[in-house]
Write a structure and sequence with these properties.
- This protein is about 60% helix and about 10% strand.
- The protein is an alpha/beta fold and about 350 residues long.
- The protein has a single domain, classed as NAD(P)-binding Rossmann-like Domain (Rossmann fold).
- A seven-stranded parallel sheet has the order 3-2-1-4-5-6-7, sandwiched between helices.
């Protein structure tokens, strides 16, 4: 037998063996896919069934909601009122109270509340204690919040940060602590409205800072209250068309911030930066904002009325498929992504 013949024989044998092993691995992989599918489908059905169960005796349960003048809070108050809950709707303005009373049942009670004022928070908590009696409070929804001022960090002052943190973070903490003993009685719920920008900081200013704080408070509260039977949930909406994302207000905010800047900071950014920021803001908001606010309201309602609520709710397609995945990117890649979507300019040397 010649060397060439020997090599051909070995090559033929290896080819057959390799082909057999490849077929075997393909068969095993197909089995693995079927096993995985067999596990995923029952799990999805179980999760759907578990999430579909709702609490009973809604007519005996009181729900306290902040920020009910407009937006998510207003829609949630009306939605829960229709479902039979006893809603305590806290509004910042008298107009908000009056308009909400006109379109809801007699069960719904409205109260004036400034979440940044501890005296106002204490006063409302005392009224709620009298209202709910020994049954306690089933749920509090910390929905009140503001989004302005917003802009580059070096356009801000410490007072801009303090004012927003007083509402978005300290207000959430103050309201929660004021009624926590009542929630313990009912073994109820705390629902905190944060944002996807509590998971990823895509722009400057105090808004992301405040929402990161809400996320942290939410997590620590959830761990501390679990032994008492209290469930704590966090709502993380994406971009929705509310007063918070009103483009007219946002553009006016940028103009006001620019106007008060020292001349040297304006020169750092250049004369065209303001208009470029306004144009990009309008373009991005028109592209991303979702007009269906009920996507967020349904998440809130599930956190309140489900027997087994989730710990987190991501509302909106942009939140699920862009912002939250972006939060898990390596920092260098995320930074490049967000800088690439910022208004272009050449800093002054």
């Amino acid at each position: 037998m010649t060397p060439v013949t020997i090599l051909q024989t070995f090559d033929s044998a290896f080819s057959v063996r390799f082909s057999t092993m490849n077929t075997m691995f393909q068969h095993i992989n197909q089995k693995h896919y079927l096993y995985a599918l067999g596990l995923v489908v029952p799990w999805c059905i179980y999760r759907w069934y578990k999430g579909s169960r709702r609490v009973t005796k809604k007519e005996d349960k009181y729900v306290y909601i902040t920020g009910c003048d407009s937006g998510f809070g207003n829609l949630l108050a009306r939605h829960l009122d229709k479902q039979g809950f006893n809603v305590i709707a806290a509004c910042y303005t008298e107009k908000g109270e009056e308009e909400l009373k006109k379109i809801t049942s007699d069960r719904l009670a409205t109260l004036h509340l400034d979440v940044a004022d501890s005296k106002s928070v204490e006063k409302v908590a005392a009224l709620i204690k009298t209202l709910v009696g020994p049954k306690g409070l089933w749920a509090v929804v910390n929905n009140a919040g503001i989004a302005l001022p917003s802009g580059p960090t070096d356009w801000m002052t410490i007072y801009d940060y303090k004012n927003m943190l007083a509402v978005n973070l300290c207000g959430v903490i103050d309201v929660t602590l004021s009624v926590l003993p009542l929630i313990k009685k009912a073994k109820g719920r705390v629902v905190n409205v944060a944002s996807v920008f509590g998971r990823v900081s895509a722009f400057g200013g105090p808004y992301c800072v405040s929402k990161f704080g809400v996320e942290s408070f939410n997590d620590s509260l959830r761990l501390n209250m679990a032994p008492f039977g209290i469930k704590v949930a966090c709502i993380e909406p994406g971009f929705f068309k509310t007063n918070v994302t009103d483009t007219v207000a946002m553009k006016n905010n940028l103009r006001q911030l620019w106007k008060r800047l020292p001349q040297d900071v304006k020169e750092d950014y250049g004369p065209d930066y303001l208009q470029a920021s306004i144009d990009m803001l309008e373009q991005r908001f028109n592209m991303l904002t979702d007009g269906n606010l009920m996507k967020v309201v349904y998440c809130m309602e599930h956190a309140i009325s489900a027997v087994y609520p989730q710990t987190r709710y991501s509302a909106g397609w942009d939140a699920k498929f862009f912002w939250l995945p972006a939060a898990y990117l390596p920092t260098s890649i995320a930074d490049r992504l967000f800088r690439g979507n910022a208004p272009p300019f050449k800093p002054k040397v």
